[in-house]
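User: My advisor, Dr. K., asked me to get a structural model of this assembly before our group meeting. I'm new to this, so sorry if the format is off. These are the inputs:
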Amino acid sequence: MSDHSSHHEESFLRKYIFSIDHKIIGIQYGITSLFFLLFGFSLMLVMRWQLAYPDTPVPLVGGLIKWLAELNGFASNGNLPPDLYNVFGAMHGTIMIFLGVVPIVVGAFGNYLVPLQIGAPDMAFPKLNMASYWTYFVGGVVMVVSFFIPGGAANSGWTSYPPLSEITTATHGQTFWLIGMIFLITSSLLGSMNIIVTIVQLRVEGLTWMRLPFFIWTQLITSFLLVLAFPPLEAAGILQLMDRVAGTSFFLPSGLVVGGEVLANSGGGSPLLWQHLFWFLAHPEVYVLILPGMGVIGEIIANNTRKPLWGYKSLVYGITFLGFMSFIVWAHHMFLTGMGQAMSVFFQTTTMIISIPSVIVLTCFLISLWGGSIRFNTPMLFALSWLPMFGIGGLTGLPLGLAPPDIHLHDTYYVISHFHYIVAPGTIFAIFAGIYYWFPKVTGKMLNERLGKTHFWFSLIFMNGIFFPMLIQGLAGVSRRLADGGITYAHAQGVIHYNSFMSASAWWLAVAQIPFIVNIIWTLIKKKDNPVDPNPWKATTIEWTDTTSPPLGHGNFEKEPVVYRGPYEYSVPNEKEDYIPQTKK
Amino acid sequence: MSDSDHDIKKHISVYRNVFLALLFFTVLTVLVSYVEFDATERYIAGAVFIGLIIASAKGYLVAAHFMHLNNEKPMINWSLILTVIFFIVLLFMPLLWDMNNMGKDVDYWGGEDQKLEIYHDVN
Amino acid sequence: MDIKIPFNEELRPDTGLYNAKLGVWLFLASEVMLFGALFSAYVLLRVAAPIWDNSILNIPMATINTVVLITSSVTMIMSWVSLKMKNLEKYKLYMGLTILCSVVFLIIKYFEYSSKFEHGYYPSTNTFLAIYFTMTGLHMLHVLGGIVVNFYLWIPGVKMWETEPERFTNRIEIAGLYWHFVDLVWIFLFPALYLL
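Assistant: The format is fine. Below is the predicted structure of the whole assembly, which you can bring to the meeting.
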């Protein structure tokens, strides 16, 4: 690796667009997925208006909504018509999960940091890496384009349950969704295989399994989940595509009556088959969403408590077990399908078991704080708030994992609140923490702390303003599928007044993101001549200690690092500095 | 895989034998399928069982010899063992339809007279 | 692009693997899950179906196809062995035979499909034909992909043999692993769809 970086000039296209450098691809993933996160969030901002003030014209963007609704063939006077509400709901979920969070945690963080943390010059397959990004991009374009076709984008929820998703063959939104998903799944498969091979094969000398930073472990487990869980959804997607395009009946039972007429299909299929195949992916997918977040939080906690991560081995074994178990809990999403008591008992047992490693992770992180001299910088604030937020998200999941309470809570706002606590103040906060933490690595410039803290506090408050009242609404029994926020729903009457409060919180949450965006743009533009210390956080892992900030061109390292110690040797007694780099003899 | 000529010669003869075995099993499985089983459930189950045994034997030959799985590194073996475990989980999925009624005479699909009604405006 | 990825052709000491070998096995693992989900769907649909009339399928044709595909698997591995013995001419012969076999497979499949369509059997006819067309169709796409890869390695890609023989041999091994997997899937599809 002595001939580390190429000195000849590469064309702009090769260097920034069709780059095969993992750092550029990571940044491409990061920018694209942040854009999609913002887009998915905006859809929800409009939906929250409809929930709080049903059928009144949406302020600010009313004209745009009217234009889109009429383009899709729905009547609108600037309000969000129910059909478009369904579209927005389905696409909010799809975009946030498949185009936002997964690409940012695996595509951006994984791509950028995995080779740097293990001392590799690049991913194992750089061209495959590029292909992965561009496949993702095409999938994203297909999804976005589907908003503008007659009938609008997919409108059967992000879960796309048949028969609902299949009897709408007059419009093509769902077909676009399926085609887009096949691209996105392919992209994830390429990316995750690449990450596994990179971690297994390209670790530098001395970086044994138990010396890997925790973040690398989470990426490894996540990638295995993606490789093994995504293909069944791809198969299911192909089957649903066949149902829609070739007229087969994989998911359509015999004698289905729609709008008073028997459907002209051969029948003989089962809608439940889709649900099983879908959740076979989508439960491991939940852990795909949270595991890299845990990895980010682990790195930041160790660094800012100046202490080794407590129970490193328990963490590693815990998440390995978690990954394994996540394949045999999927049917807890389906207690209400009448799959029988025996199977319900089986799946609620495995679900209770899988909560154990999650508790181990949370406990290890909490104990890591004990006796540390904590630095309360922005990444650490996000990491600290992640702990209780993930705790709420996890604990509210327990009643859902048990069949009897799930019968009451299924499909209510309680469920929405539960998984948003995991993903929104959970994973998204971990993403913010990671961005603040690694921004100096990527750009060589520190983000502004004051703006960062403003961003943090308001985000934390308004996140809870949105999701906590949902728990109350859900316990009261309010269904999550109502386009009018519940004004015509008997169970909602006592708790309907929370709607406007939650919606206002959502809009204020949007405002709270302005400091973040300003911070990034301002730092990039203003701080031109302010090269940062390559290791501003005084961290031990290779990406900080052995590369410049930002790292050299393609190839990363001047000379191949050699690792002599574990990842978190902070505050070792009798040492001059309070940290020892992994590469120090 | 060592490169000496002698070893490679030995490999070639293994490949030839595997090829012949695969052809034999192919003919066998076709012939077995022509044997008239009674159309009772037990015999159909038997036919399926025999067919799958033969297919598995062929699959084993291809995987072990052509794909060299009989002599592969632990990393790959463990990844595949993991895959096979989840593959088996997937194949057991059809059992989830109604475990309470397994082995009893139940019409899983509710028969012809039960119609599912969906109230939905089709665009 | 002069950077060198470690262990691209040489073996990493502690895992005993080169990168692409692990990569292709992970890819095949995901393929196992893809076809696994389809087999799972097959079992379910079959258990539920009132009639499962696979007698309309042409067993002799499929048997010939099975033999053709098995033969192609053998020629594929022989092409790799030929490279191991540093015999490029034999490699080209065997690789050519592999491609020939896979094209024959597709031609036979084409006749099978068109005779089904002539008799008015479509994927929408019943769940048996639906799963039959989906599984064999997806398998055919895999065959097609294999032909593209093998053809590349047969004619345009062969120049790598001059510069990096080790790496080229690895590539054939990788392509071979994929091709044997395609064969393996057919070995299970054949009895599942045609015979049982």
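One thing worth pointing out at the meeting: The beta strands of chain A are 256-258, 261-262.

User: Perfect, thanks a lot.
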